[in-house]
Amino acid sequence: MFVRTYAGAIVGIDAVAVTVEVNIAGGGLGMYLVGLPDNAVKESEQRIRAAFENSGERMSGRKVVVSLAPADLRKEGASFDLPIAVGILAAMGRVDAGALGGTMFAGELSLDGTLRPVRGVLPLAVKARDEGLRRLVVPAENAAEAAVVEGVEVYGLHSLGEVIALLKEASRKYAQTIVMITHDLGVVANIADRVAVMYAGQIVEYGTVEEIFYDAWHPYTWALLQALPQLGTKGEALPTIDGTPPNLFNEIKGDAFAPRNKHALAIDFVQEPPFFQVSETHAAKTWYLDPRAPKIERPHSIQNLREKMGKMGGANLNG
C-alpha cells in the first residue's frame, strides 16, 4: 500500500517542505530509504523498529520503501523519524491514511517510543502554514516554539503512542470514509469496518471485517486469506493461486473463479451462482452455500484463523 505524508528539511535559516512517500509491497524484506538521506536519517530504521516494539506495534515483515522528495535535497537529522514512522503505520493500515492529510510531522524517536525535541521547529511551522497544511505535530518540548506561528494548529506530544491516538481521533472527528483496493487483506484488517471481495469485475463476497476473516465462504476469499503475510513462514514463499484471471472480453460461463478452484463443483462451470445470505450483513456468491451442495471444508491453513492470528501477533481486527 502507498501513502504520503509531510515533513520539512532545514536549509540555512529556512525550511523546505519534504514529501515522505511510503510503499509497502512484496519482493524482499527491510526498509529502503531513498532521497539523499544522511547517516542520521538512514539510522532511523533501527529507532523506528524499537519504538514500534515498545509502543505495541510491529514493523511490517514486507519490503518498505521510503522516498524523501525532492530527491536532490540533502535530508539531515533525526527529525524525519516521526514522519517516516507514521507513514509506515498508515501503509500497514495501523492508522487511517486519510488522517495524515494536511499534517506535517517532525520529531526524533527514542527506542522506547518517546519523542525527543529537534531543531528548526519555528521555520517548519512557517513552512507548514505557507504550504496550506493545517496541523503540525512535534515533540512536546518544541510546542511552545512552534505555537508562535499563527495559522497552523500545533500538537506537542510526548510519545509515538500519543501520535497514534491523535491520528485515530482525527479519523473519527472528521468521519472520513476511506475506500482501499488491495490484494492483501492484512492491510485493511485493523481499520476496515466492511470488506467487499471482487473477482473478474464482480463482488463475490461482502461482509464485516470479522465475517470475511473468520467466516468466509467464497473460494477466492479463502485463497486471499491463505496468502496473508501474518500466516507465512520466514524464508518461505506465500501460497499463490494457480492459473490466471479470465479475459473479461470473453464470455464467462458459471463461476468465473471455477477454473482456478481445485474444489469447484460441476455446476460452477455451467451456471453462475446467485448470492446466498449468510447473515444480515454477509453474503457470498458461491454454490458452496446452496443447501443441496456437498459439504466443503475450508482450507486447513485458515481454519481457527482467529486463534492463529492472535498467537502470531497479527491483525487484531479492530478489537
Describe this protein with a few key phrases.
single chain; 319 residues; alpha/beta; 4-stranded antiparallel sheet; 10 helices; elongated
Describe this structure in words.
By secondary structure, the protein is an alpha/beta fold. Helix content is about 25%, strand content about 20%. The chain contains ten helices and 13 strands. It has helices spanning about 40, 45-55, 80-90, 120-130, 145, 160-175, 185-190, 210-215, 220-225, 305-310; strands spanning about 1-10, 15-25, 30-35, 65-70, 105, 110, 115, 135-140, 155, 195-200, 200-210, 275, 285. A four-stranded mixed β-sheet has the order 1-2-4-3. A four-stranded antiparallel β-sheet has the order 10-11-13-12. β10 (about 195-200) and β11 (about 200-210) form a beta hairpin. The protein is elongated and about 75 Å long. The two termini are about 20 Å apart. Mean pLDDT is about 90; it is low at about 310-315.
Number of strands: 13
Oligomer: single chain
**Structure classification:** alpha/beta
Residue-averaged pLDDT, rounded? 88
| Global Rg | 23 Å
Which strand order does the major sheet show?
A: 1-2-4-3
Helical region count?
Answer: 10
Shape call: elongated
* End-to-end separation: 22 Å
User: Strand portion, in percent?
Assistant: 15-25%
Proportion of residues in helical segments: 10-25%
Element pattern in H and E: EEEHHEHEEEHEHEHHEEHHEEH
